[in-house]
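Long-time lurker, finally posting.

We've been working with Vitamin B12-dependent ribonucleotide reductase (Nakamurella multipartita) and I want a structural starting point before designing mutants. I don't trust myself to interpret raw outputs, so I'm hoping someone here can both generate the structure tokens and explain anything notable. Sequence follows.
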Amino acid sequence: MTETIGVPGSANGSNGSAKARKSKAAATNGGTQGLTLQRLFTTAGVHPYDEVSWQRRDVVMTNWRDGTVNFEQRGVEFPDFWSVNATNIVTSKYFRGAVGGPTRESSLRQLIDRVVSTYTAAGVEHGYFATEQDTEIFEHELTWMLLHQVFAFNSPVWFNVGTKSPQQVSACFILSVDDTMDSILNWYREEGLIFKGGSGAGLNLSRIRSSKELLSSGGTASGPVSFMRGADASAGTIKSGGATRRAAKMVVLDVDHPDIAEFVETKAREEHKIRVLRDAGFDMDLGGDDIISVQYQNANNSVRVSDEFMRAVDADTDEGASFGLRARQTGEVIETVDARELFGKITQAAWECADPGIQYDDTINDWHTSPESGRISASNPCSEYMHLDNSSCNLASLNLMKFLSEDGTFDAPTFARAVEFVITAMDISICFADFPTQPIAETTRAYRQLGIGYANLGALLMATGHAYDSEGGRSLAAAITSLMTGVAYRRSAELAGVVGPYEGYARNADAHKRVIRKHAAANDYVRSIGGNDGAVLKLATTVWQDTVAIGERNGYRNAQASVLAPTGTIGLMMDCDTTGIEPDLALVKFKKLVGGGSMQIVNQTVPGALKSLGYQAESIEAIVEYIAEHGHVVDAPGLRREHYSVFDCAMGERSIAPMGHVRMMAAVQPFISGAISKTVNMPEHATVADVAEIYQQGWKMGLKALAIYRDNCKVGQPLSASNKNHGEKSADASVGAAAEVTAAPAAPVVTGPVRRRLPKKRPSQTVSFTVGGAEGYLTTGSYPDDGLGEVFIKLGKQGSTLAGVMDAFSIAVSVGLQYGIPLESYVAKFTNLRFEPAGMTDDPDVRIATSVMDYLFRRIALDYLPVESRAELGIFSAEERRAQVATNYGSESPAPTGVDDADDGLVENLRTTVDATPVVRPAVESGAPSAVPAGARDAGKAGSSTELLELVIGKSADAPLCFTCGTKMRPSGACYLCEGCGSTSGCS
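Top reply, 14 upvotes:
Generated this for you. Predicted structure of Vitamin B12-dependent ribonucleotide reductase:
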């Protein structure tokens, strides 16, 4: 939804802000100081709730695969402009009280009041507001922005604030561990407590002695990798938030640690083990029954590299490539290695399994506001929060699309004033917040780290006619980010004048002010490309000047102000089209409808973008219809080629190049206090050298952290496949895989379905099988010119109910096949069904089956479907799986994944794309649903935007199924998010 926000009672947000600023910290009420506020969105005398229309809705959330009800609450109250998806997420995730009980929340009013009243009361108690009128303005403005989805706090706020639970408001934690057994065991305990509360934690293990060093007793140390096993097992057992999602954790090791090579290769070796076990028939998918037999799968691993190491990697001479690994206690060099060789191991492992990521230590600490209190040595699990050990950060994100004006420009003055209200509320939260451990509580209260950020950047860039990978797009993103952080620090300085700077500021004042000047200087280097980013940049420049001046006088209330988080569940809460800094997922989306059901539509951002680019209504309608049919813009009627890039997405026909993601991160990083949660996607055919180039460029461009994901590099994801045949398609293959998904051989035109009966004499085969101890027979008959035509299943004693049901089922399938229903449709529908009998089989190609139906249709697919079709369904024989492993791991760069040269259709490198973002968008401007993309018209085959996109592009996406509702999740930063129920795979 693209909603323009005005400023009631004022046409000049910037002038009003300037007036308010002059009266900051004014003495009132007997000399007490507090903020003097002016209204932004609200009107005096009118409560925000009275300005909107409310309606009652029934929230019934089901597993779309089997129809079971996961959650039900009827009669909940929401504004009429909130989407069904946002309503479902908030009701199921954030309403407190036992479902069906008298204390259960049933209205968005109750939820917002619970949170806002707590913040307001704490603000009054701690002297944040000058007068009662300012208190009311704060309360109303916060309520209005939450009600209208302008911003959202991170999930722990909605879970805990205003309830009887501990008032935990932070989602990001950093722990510490020392080289003692007491400290290591305490690490396990603290991490478990954080996981239990639904949050994630990261830490650096580099203080622990390596396996190449001696203990005081004379023995050899175990090394940090050995202790990672225990922590990994703990995380896998506790999971997160009471088994609703996997634990989120980050493990970091310095590049000069003597055990660095073992650490780097740890997850890659486990990935090899996973492949072997999978080929033996074990269930090794993410969340599978047998995946727990491998280790180190619950953490993201990162190597902390120094400038010294990266310079050695870059050195022209062999002497320059040498690098020393140092003892943990003495700091002496105990081993010298070739830096390029070690860097090669890092990039090889990342190519194989996406771990380890990389963190640039010197860059991180060069932007550290509190170096006198300790170095920054680790991050939270998604790498956006980086500060002192034993600390935490609470997050909030603004919806950038809410600041898009009717004329297609970004409303910078209104955005700046909104940031002031949000950052004020975030700081107030630390006054009443609870923390999982005492050290974290002490550090957080002393440094008051905050993480304001945004969502919907990708949608905003498209709507304003900017390509994500363009100078204009990066300039606008940098200007907005600079303005956000500048305003946040300015308000932090103003708060320092009202309620005092953070406790650790005095000893770190020089360093903090130096970092603020670095931010301001970076702002001066941004070059305006167009009129919109120029206006934002001009305001940002003024703001940074104010920030430096006020900070020199007052100091700062917060050691950190901003991060760019994944904005997973809260992005759905705000009806955001894209999360965090991500580009759009695709040009077609999956939308839930009021009253149940769903449809596939073209993003509403598309017509807005076309209008911004100067297209007329007739052209816009034609282009939108083309996108609805094909899923992309290539060869769209009337669309100029120079505008294609505006519609590039994370996935699809025109996907953004890996370096495009890196360049966007580099553009905004100088204006972020912390870092950026983002994974750079790479195609499956990318090489180890490509990974190395990404990691080196990340260092040279000034990023703080970087992680990559090469498509299909993990076994613990659904197998992907391309349905395009090598060298056999026409030159017009660019019309998209969507058409190929539903393509069929030419046939005479008929007016209705025609049954093609089998001849009296036809070839057939019978297969005996055993599934979970149950024995049966499968007989299949085919047409003489090939093609399955009938199925007979013998299971159970003759005359029994089971035998009768199986006979009837066999007849139904056989008649359907003869009327032309594709065998692929039956296989897709009946594989993965779960019911007894299930378990081990006697078939070497299908070792484990989740039901008899699952086995039967996998067997039929192996016997009657070509390898290209089976690849898309993830069904391979044992021999084919062995051939894939041999091909993928026989050389450094991945070869085609086919069984032999004749199977080039399987080749296409089994590509997928992972850097996706959520989107539920309304229909095109007319209000009528737009055409459903070709290949996606069967709504029963899709339960999310990810699955819809699979049907459009003809490839499976590397994404796990949601543990709660079974919907295929989509990537969000370094995590995965479920559009169906809002669950995440880690980050809140």
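Before you design anything, note these points.
Residues 682 and 710 are 5 Å apart (CA to CA).
The longest strand covers residues 69-79.
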